[in-house]
Amino acid sequence: MPESARLDRYRGGVPVYRYVLEPQTPPVQVLRFEHDDPHRDRPHIHDFPALLYVTRDEEPPADGGAAAPGTEQEWPRAGDLYLVAPGNVVRPPVSTFRRTGATAVFFAPEAVSHQGSRAASWRSHPLLFPFLHGTPTGLLRLRVPAAERPEWTRTIGALETELAQRRDGYRQAALAHLTLLLVSVARLAGDVLGDLRRSDEPLLAEVFGVIERRYRGPLSLRDVAAEVRLTPGHLTTAVRRKTGRTVQDWITERRMSEARRLLTETDLALGTVGRRVGYPDGGYFARVFRREHGIPPRDWRAAGHPPSR
Q: Is the domain of 117 the same as that of 171?
């Protein structure tokens, strides 16, 4: 995990990490799989997108070894690109990626979409849509053509240089290099995700738009389904398939995102915070917050946690 990743909560016993975007934290980070880190081999979830780029071929070990996630029969090759979907349980064999010279690029999605703290909004951004592929493994494998690989290597190297030197304007420069990578990703994913983009991107954008407008008041799956003119069952299937999470999960996440911000940035009473994020019952708000974060809202505020988005 990058330095900016923080353990936020557990979901079904699996740790969930969030990207903490602070003034001293770059909006994107690069991590090379060069050293052993047992924590990375364990199943985990992160609520921000990432990509893994394989830079060299490596023969699998004599015993067959572990294939890359989502490619049970195929060993990773130079030019393989894996898109890591937020919200899915990922079980990456890190030793495999280390032998193939993989590099991970993690980033705060709101920094790309310029949507500030609006947690749901970035998911309708065209450059970030490929990361909502919803594959069962949480990773989508693409191939970077041989002719484009030198440019990928240069761009990632330039990104690393900006992050290492941190000269004036490095954040803007880092985002510019990241944008170039994301444009390339969107083009590579066009053939794979073309049908999904045409049929489901408008739907996802509409769903997150409804959540953004209404999360402060009463809002249920049926309410969202009614606004997008689908049955609750159909909507649940479509959203889970593309994002790995349910509509109710996204409603809760949006409410929790705003609750964390209010707890950190204001002195509002806990009951007032709950009411502002759609929970008129303060006790129920506290129970939901504790379920999602492992501690009650009062302790979160006392600990001085930074805003998660």
A: yes
Which pLDDT tens digits describe the chain residue by residue (309 residues)?
A: 667 788 888 887 888 888 887 777 888 999 887 655 555 567 888 888 899 999 876 655 555 554 544 444 467 788 999 998 888 777 755 556 666 678 999 998 878 865 444 444 566 677 787 887 767 677 788 899 999 999 999 999 999 999 999 988 898 899 889 988 988 888 887 655 454 444 445 777 788 888 888 999 999 999 999 999 999 998 988 888 777 678 998 899 888 888 888 998 899 999 999 999 999 999 999 999 998 888 899 988 887 654 443
Q: What is the CATH number of the domain that holds 78?
A: 2.60.120.280
Give residue 250's domain range.
215-309
Closest to 159 (Cα-Cα) out of 6, 31, 18: 31
pTM of the model: 0.61
Residues 61 and 178 in one domain: yes
What is the count of structural domains for the chain?
2
**Whether residue 96 is found in the same domain as residue 221:** no
Cα 217–chain centre separation: 26
| 184 and 233 both lie in a single domain | no
Whether 75 and 161 map to the same domain: the answer is yes
For residue 203, being part of any structural domain is answered with no
